[in-house]
Amino acid sequence: QVQPVQSGGGLVQEGGSLRLSCSSHENIFRRYSVHWYRQAPGKQRELVGSISPIGSATYVDSVQGRFTISRDNAGLIIYLQMNDLQPEDTAVYYCKGEFSGWGQGTQVTVSP
Length: 112
Fold this sequence. Notes:
Elements: E1 5-8, E2 10-13, E3 18-23, H1 28-31, E4 34-39, E5 46-51, E6 57-59, E7 67-71, E8 77-82, E9 91-97, E10 106-111
Parallel strand pairs: 2-10
Antiparallel strand pairs: 1-3, 3-8, 4-5, 4-9, 5-6, 7-8, 9-10
């Protein structure tokens, strides 16, 4: 399995925004769903949201209305737009295609 490549992330103040990217050259990446996960210190990795091959996205309740997952036109770059970030969103964020490996992880830190 090829590992997607992530970019973005960093440190932001409460209420701020960040955008993460997840890209792969694999054609299979555009043909199946891609998922975003996060893992906060001392907690289990949790699913944040997913996007289908046709661009339909679903989200966990805690980020609904604040986060948006989208694909580029080629379907090989997946974005996670995060608005109104809260300290509890602080975590390492990972992307994973349905039949692809895990991205390398990106740290997102939200300061109060």
